[in-house]
Automatic annotation (TrEMBL), chain A:
Signal peptide: 1-18
Function of the molecule: Required for the assembly of the mitochondrial NADH:ubiquinone oxidoreductase complex (complex I). Involved in the assembly of the distal region of complex I.
Protein's name according to its UniProt entry: Distal membrane-arm assembly complex protein 2
Superkingdom: Eukaryota
Subunit: Interacts with incompletely assembled mitochondrial NADH:ubiquinone oxidoreductase complex (complex I).
Alphabetic keyword roster: Signal
Keyword Signal: yes
Keyword Signal: yes
Organism annotation: Hucho hucho
SUPFAM superfamilies linked to this entry: RNI-like
Family per similarity comment: Belongs to the ATP synthase subunit s family.
From TrEMBL, chain B:
Molecular functions (GO terms): oxidoreductase activity
Membrane topology (UniProt): Single-pass membrane protein
UniProt name for this protein: FAD-dependent oxidoreductase domain-containing protein 1
GO CC, alphabetical: mitochondrial inner membrane
GO annotation terms (biological process): mitochondrial respiratory chain complex I assembly
UniProt keyword list: Electron transport, FAD, Flavoprotein, Membrane, Mitochondrion, Mitochondrion inner membrane, Oxidoreductase, Respiratory chain, Transmembrane, Transmembrane helix, Transport
Biological source species: Hucho hucho
Length: 268, 473
């Protein structure tokens, strides 16, 4: 834990400006107290043994534990990242008011760099790698969205508010989304009558508690829970999911079901 | 000043007067440098500081939540010095860690519903609030399985009224008929059940120890002082005033809180401005130290704090053919409840005993015979539970409010600087983040700002108007 008093590091020349930074840091500390996220969100994989991190994160960790000002600067960077995430998932109230729920949901999905398909049509609207998309979707004000693919985006619980009015949603894919967690899954009960296909593979924050919330999706026919890093007993969980949702086909690949772990100690 | 006179043995360091003189010197130095803790002499490090602004008696989840929110809301850095005093470092008897850990919005009072909703929102964003730089993220292991309440014919109308209140307050609850219930949970025997109420969101259970440690770690990183010791008494000043009828009323103001070290006679009087009583099941004893309830019978001074410990048992059972991953926290109309624990076919079950059969509260021994009363109800409701095996059990205290089973939040009319946040009767854990914020607003802002908990004040106890919660477990 860093010391409570700002310590001036005289020995290291790159930080000779810290005397000036200290007073600035103390002023900014108040505003940044609100949100301090971790500097290392990849810790969610911590149950799997990884190689020791490289030099730069270790050096930063050492410095932030000794110097209060470094700690403050690191907490600013995580605050900015969090702010970026919140801006991506704003509630599109203005669009909803002026253009209707469907257009608002469509605009939100496209700005997240995802894709969707309207009900009754066969072509998908997607945005390309740089974020540009076709504005033709504005012509279909009254068609609801049937399939949504927001894999590998930054969608989270607050962003889902933009999609809750789409009561005819059949397919949802949030594969590989880093911010989808158990609370997101518990909110999916809104689509309980119509959702047929759900893909939540490769989401690092989902655990068994969230999968238990999928019991409300009675219309689900295809569920993909592959490669969830936080699942301790993937085989057992897949069986329990199949029991819980009898009409649903559960896909759970990408797990090592072998009885002997590859990193065991040599003897007991 | 008196010189250091050598004693008869010609060795000044055996002079007992030396200790007193050092103490006098320390006090003089402290008076010369007000507000500073610095002392040139080494003190016992486990003692609390000599001065603190706010002393929180009780280091459970409510106490630490209040400490965190006080630090969160202070306007300037180190604006308030908060000290949390906890009697037991192992938390062996604390209600927080012995709790079943459930959170639900299905209450009958709107205040309780709002408290649960705010707490669920807090827990959803817990890493925004309680994460510490370079430490592991907080993982509450929240199971979103929801609460399922069953109602017989006699109480179905109460459930419908509660449903209306809950929906009006914004809780996401749904009512299920018997056929819908059978479809959703085929393992239930719906005999005797007329209506069921199921929470769709923000309901389930979590790990209370993780929440407590998250609050504690974050509060300590923000500068809250922690002390393991027992508050054995207070030093207060009394202001006696007479009413128009000629009765005398004593208004007390706490000046010092005596914190005694564990297994020792050593104590430290902590000079404090505000004392918060968050001692849970033992809040009644702390209130008695201030003389609350020890006055004449018909006066306000004679009304004690109506919080007493009540022992509740939880039994861990194993049933291989029991309900699977979709088991909600089921609460039957007979008072029996159970929930799934883990993935291996284990469940925890319990029941609130009748008023006449309340067990003794001087220890935490489990009465295994009590399970024989729970089992028939369990087996009747879930036929698979006819063949189960009790693997383990534990007991914990509820901070039971004998008056109306709802929390007491606010100041006492006769003790000017003692605040209460206790008496939640089994809901303290699920309401702790919201109650902590409300108390911090009350102390620092002078009134409730985001959620108005004035309905939970001491006033209802003085005017003898109970606010009964119909849906307690």
């Amino acid at each position: 834990m860093a010391s409570r008093f700002p310590i001036l590091c005289i020995c290291l020349s790159p930080f000779s400006l810290s005397m000036f930074c200290v007073s600035v840091c103390q002023l900014m500390q108040r505003s940044c107290r609100q949100v301090t996220l971790l500097a290392a969100p990849s810790r969610y994989w911590s149950s799997i043994p990884v190689a020791p991190p490289s030099l730069q994160p270790r050096l930063l960790l050492f410095l932030s534990q000794r110097f209060h000002d470094i700690e403050t600067i690191l907490s600013w960077s995580s605050w900015f990242k969090n702010r970026g995430l919140r801006q991506k998932n704003f509630f599109y109230g203005y669009t909803q008011q002026n253009y209707g729920d469907n257009i608002a949901a469509a605009y939100y999905i496209l700005s997240l760099k995802g894709g969707f398909r309207f009900a009754g049509q066969s072509e998908w609207f997607r945005s390309d790698r740089r974020g540009k998309f076709n504005w033709d979707f504005m012509n279909h004000r009254d068609t609801s969205i049937e399939e949504v693919d927001v894999s590998n985006t930054l969608i989270n619980y607050t962003g889902l508010e933009n999609l809750v009015k789409q009561r005819g949603l059949c397919t949802l894919s949030v594969s590989g989304c880093a911010e989808v967690d158990d609370w997101f899954l518990s909110r999916l009960h809104i689509f309980q009558d119509t959702l047929e296909e759900l893909d939540i593979s490769n989401c690092p924050r989902i655990s068994v508690g969230g999968l238990a919330a999928l019991q409300k999706l009675r219309g689900l026919r295809r569920l993909d829970v592959s490669s969830l890093p936080r699942l301790q007993n993937p085989g057992l969980v897949a069986i329990l999911l199949e029991e819980m949702l009898p009409h649903c086909h559960v896909t759970a690949i990408g797990y090592d079901h072998s009885l002997i772990y590859s990193h065991t100690q040599t003897d007991g | 000043c008196s010189a250091l006179r050598p004693n008869r043995n010609n060795n000044i360091f055996l002079n007992t007067d030396l200790e007193n003189q050092f103490k006098a010197f320390r006090e003089k130095a402290a008076d010369a440098m007000p507000g500073s803790d610095w002392t040139p002499f080494e003190k016992n490090r486990s003692l609390p500081p000599e001065r603190a602004d706010i002393v929180i008696v009780g280091g459970g989840v409510v106490g630490w939540s209040i400490a965190y929110w006080l630090k969160q809301k202070e306007m300037i850095r180190d604006g308030v010095r908060v000290l949390v005093v906890e009697r037991d470092p192992t938390y062996s008897q604390a209600s927080t860690v012995l709790s079943a850990g459930g959170i639900r919005q299905q209450f009958s009072l709107p205040e309780n519903i709002h408290l649960s909703m705010i707490s669920a929102d807090f827990m959803r964003n817990i890493n925004e609030h309680l994460s510490v730089l370079n430490e592991d993220p907080v993982d509450l292991q929240f199971n979103h399985s929801g609460y399922l309440f069953l109602a017989s014919e006699k109480v179905a109308h109460i459930m419908e009224e509660n449903y209306r209140t809950q929906r009006y307050a914004g809780a996401k609850v749904s009512l299920l008929s018997t056929t819908q219930l059978k479809e959703k949970c085929p393992w239930i025997n719906t005999d005797g059940v007329v209506l069921a109420s199921y929470g769709l969101e923000n309901e389930g259970w979590f790990d209370p120890w993780m929440l407590l440690n998250a609050f504690r770690r974050k509060a300590i990183s923000m500068g809250v002082y922690q002390c393991f010791g027992e508050v054995t008494g207070f030093r207060y000043t009394t202001n006696t005033m007479t009413t128009a009828e000629g009765d005398t009323v004593d208004f007390r103001r706490i000046k010092y809180a005596n914190v005694q070290m564990p297994n020792s006679l050593e104590y430290q009087p902590v000079e404090c401005a505000i004392v918060v009583n968050a001692a849970g099941a033992f809040s009644g004893k702390v209130a008695e130290m201030m003389g609350i309830g020890l006055g004449l019978k018909d006066t306000i001074a004679g009304i004690p704090l109506p919080v007493e410990p009540r022992k509740r048992f939880i039994y861990v059972v194993h049933c291989p053919n029991g309900p699977g991953l979709d088991t909600p926290f089921l609460v039957d109309y007979s008072g029996v409840y159970f929930r799934r624990e883990g993935l291996g076919g284990n469940y925890i079950a319990g029941m609130s005993p009748e008023e006449e059969e309340e067990p003794e509260t001087n220890n935490l021994e489990v009465d295994h015979q009590f399970f024989q009363k729970i089992w028939p109800h369990l087996a009747h409701r879930v036929p698979a539970f006819e063949c189960l095996k009790v693997t383990s059990a534990w007991a914990g205290f509820y901070d039971y409010n004998t008056f109306d089973q709802n929390g007491i939040v606010g100041m006492h009319p006769l003790v000017n600087n003692m605040f209460f946040a206790t008496g939640f009767s089994g809901h303290g854990l699920q309401h702790s983040p919201a109650v902590g914020r409300a108390m911090a607003e009350l102390i620092l802002d002078g009134g409730f700002k985001t959620l108005d908990l004035s309905a939970f004040s001491f006033k209802r106890i003085m005017t003898k108007e109970p606010m009964l919660e119909r849906n307690i477990v």
